[in-house]
Amino acid sequence: MYVHSKHVFGMVFFLCAFLLSPTGMAGDWVAESEFRASDADSRSFLISLDRTIGERGLAFVSLGETWINGSEQDMDTRRQSVGGMLRLDDEWRLTGYYERWGRRGDIISDRVAFILARDFDQWGFSANAGARWITLEAGAPARRDRNGAEGPPINIPVNPGDPDDGEVIAEDYDTRAINLGLRLRYRPSEEWTFAAGFTHYDYDRDPTQLAARDQVERYSASAVTLAQGFLDRSVYLDARYDLGNYRDLSVYVSRDRSAVDGRDADSIILSYLQPLSAAWDLRLEVGRTQTDGFDASHSVGIGVTWYP
C-alpha cells in the first residue's frame, strides 16, 4: 500500500480545521450532498464542502461511499478527497487535489491530479494530468465457489503462504497509472453551453493481467471486480441549456473503456437544476449505462446544494 489511511484522515482533519478558521466571510461557503441508486443494486452517497479563500482561492473536501449488492457478495467502497483551486489571473486557474478510493483489505487507490484551465469570451479549455497508485491486496485466492462454479470466491481472508514450508508468498499487486486529458468548452449564446473531453490512461503494468484467471488467484473477488473500473480511456460530450431564473437542463454522454477487459460502457445522464430559495438548490437526474456483454442499468439521483 502506498499511503497509509491515517495520512488521509490527517489531511482531511487539517483541511477541515483550516476551513473552520475565522478567515472568511458569510457567503464563502458551499455545502453539497448527493445520493444515487441504480437497478444494478448499487447506491452511492457523497457530501462535499467548498470554501472561498481570499479573492482568488478555493479549498474543498469531500467524503463518499458506494454500496454494491452482488449475486455472491456485497461490496462497499469509500472515497475521500481534499484540494483547492487558485485563480492565477482573470483568465487562468489551477486546480489540484488528492483522492483516496477503495475497500479496506481488498483494493486501494491514491490519486494526485492537476487541472490547468483558461476561459475566453465564448471558448474555454482545460488540460488535466494526474498519477494514480493502485494496490490489490493479497489474501483471498481465487477458487471454485461452494457450488463448484468457476470464478473468484466470496472474500474470505486466508494465510498468504509460509516460505519456510515452501509455499508461494501472495504478494500485493501494485501498479501506477498516469492520465492526460483535454476538455473544450463552447458557449454560442447566453442559453447554450457545450463541452467535450477526452482522457487517456497509461499503466506501468499490463492491467489485462487482472482478466486472466491464473493472474488473480491471490486476490479477493471484490478486489478483482472493482479493478474492472480502471479505465484505458474516456470520452464525453456535455450540453447545457439555461432555462432562466438559475434553472438549467443538461445532458451528459460518455464512453469509458476498461483497461482490464477492454469492455466499453456507454452512459447518458439527464439532469435538471431547480433553485428552491436563495440558499438552496435541488438537482434531479436520471441515467442509463450499457456495458458490453451486460444488460443496461438505469439510475436516479438527487442532489442538494446549500449556500449559507
From TrEMBL:
Region (Disordered) location: 144-164
Keyword Signal belongs to the record: yes
InterPro entries: Porin_dom_sf
Gene3D superfamilies, alphabetized: Porin (2.40.160.10)
SUPFAM superfamilies: Porins
Key words, A-Z: Signal
Protein's recorded name: Outer membrane beta-barrel porin/alpha-amylase
Signal peptide: 1-26
Coiled-coil regions listed: none
Entry superkingdom: Bacteria
Species for this entry: Natronospira bacteriovora
